[in-house]
Amino acid sequence: MQGYSTKKLKVKVGAFKARLKALSDHNQYSDPEGKAKQAGICSASWSLFGQLWQASRVLAKAVKHVDIENRRILELGCGLALPSLVLQHRGANITASDYHPLSKRFLIHNATINKLEPIPYINLPWADEKLDIGRFDLIVGSDILYEPDHADMLAGLIERIASDKAKVIISCPGRGYRNRFTRSLADLGFTLNEQRVPFDKDEKPPYKGRLLTYRRGYTELHA
Known about the structure:
GO terms for molecular function: methyltransferase activity. By secondary structure, the protein is α/β, with parallel strands linked by helices. The protein has one domain: 3-Layer(aba) Sandwich (Rossmann fold). The chain contains six helices and nine strands. It is globular. 37% of the residues are buried.
């Protein structure tokens, strides 16, 4: 008995028609071995990884068009990992990461039901400075700036894992902490291209949501 209930979702991102296993609602909670508690995940936030958020859809649409050639790519806080699945469908060198104890299990399942090759997974607490995972050319994440300390933690992580020539793409529904994150990345040599995007189909401009694209070491804006 797994201790939680799930549902099946169908999502279309361009030509990729994905099927996803997700948690059935926000009230799910199961931590029989205390792994979530050990990772600092409380019962109120335990189910968040297992929902398909609109920010993930926005990011998935963005990475559908990004250049993947000769790039080592990492998704941060992947949750159900829709962007990683899209990138794997495109043949990218993609690694997914999160710190929820069930993220890897859901990732394996969702890659399998979509007939994709397994996606490498890293258990990645952002503040762990001792974890050596190498350098990445493209780092992506959806709605990962929602806590006051996330801006500093993420900037520190990117300093450790981003290649000299790198791009960071984050879909943000309008969090205030993005400005602090942008200033920290500017100190690391990244420039920002900010695009307002709708997060709901009925949303009218000016849109609150943003697609944040940071670049370092590129001579062309759209590289």
